[in-house]
Amino acid sequence: MYVNADKSLQYGGTLTYPKTDSGDHSEKANTYPAVILITGSGQQDRDETLFDHKPFAIIADYLTRKGFVVLRVDDRGIGKSTGIFEDATTADFAKDVETSLDFLEKQPQVNKYKIGLIGHSEGGMIAPIVADERKEIKFIVLLAGPGIPIIDLMQQQIEAVSISEGKSPAEAKAAGHLMHIVWEEAGKNDDSATTIKNIRLKIGAWSKTLDTATLAKIKGNDTSSVNNQIAQAMAALNGKWYKYFISFNPQPYLQKLDCKVLALNGSKDVQVVATPNLYAIKTSLKKSKSPEYEIIEIPGLNHLFQTCMKCSPSEYIDLEESFSLKALDIMGNWLQKNVE
What we know:
The strands form two sheets. This protein has a seven-stranded mixed beta sheet with strand order 3-5-4-6-7-8-9, sandwiched between helices. 44% of the residues lie in helices and 15% in strands. By secondary structure, the chain is of the alpha/beta class. Helix 2 (90-105) crosses helix 3. The protein folds into two domains: 2-149 and 250-338, Rossmann fold; 150-246, no CATH class. It is built from twelve helices and nine strands.
């Protein structure tokens, strides 16, 4: 347990030491490289528990066996961490990680010159934000971290998830484009009446380009259905987190990095579609000062880095594997090569 400088928030977490550690954590103890694990979207505990899966517990155990100190922390308002999660944005979560970093740097068994971040999904969005601010971060690992503007990533997500659930490519593409129109216009101004009017005009013009069958399937010609989608999007954008999230572009943060980077994506990820996402990350890192980076698409893995079959989000609960050993080995080998 530890608190930040102004004592306003208290965090609960687990600090795991290398399996080879003697247990001597005094000032005279050996020091080790260290990582902070950063959770994805939604209120997560320190293990990033989803259904019966605890991927961060698995990653922590694996990395301690590789000689790393690992810190994983409960998000605001869950487990032993205080604070109100709903009032926070991604930028606030980045500050929480900086608090974790302050704590980690004070530990005598941590090598202060070999500290890094491993972020999954939104955590992979947070890691570059923190690394840009805190130059003591020497490496980051992005596990399905975003490389393209979130509004475009979410459009791709809708399309990919729809196809994984049996929708036709045409229907999936139309559903994604429809929501992109809503998000784009909703983010332009705070006048809800003007926004709704503009959304309806754009949807009306776009609907004329669709065939009747596709339009019917996405209910694009159903005024009540469209109004409901607009209302849901407008309500979501009233929330601080969602408004910040949907308008976020990770590319400027990636381009400012000057630490080593490993970016991993599962080829079957339908939440962060691998090929365009990794291409965008690579393009941004080429403009950065990163001394070393590697971009890897891992065949057959979903957003949680499970070996999947249907590969839709609804399948996460049915899969026995919590985190692919192949992904662990890629990450562990890269870390040993680039950190130790």
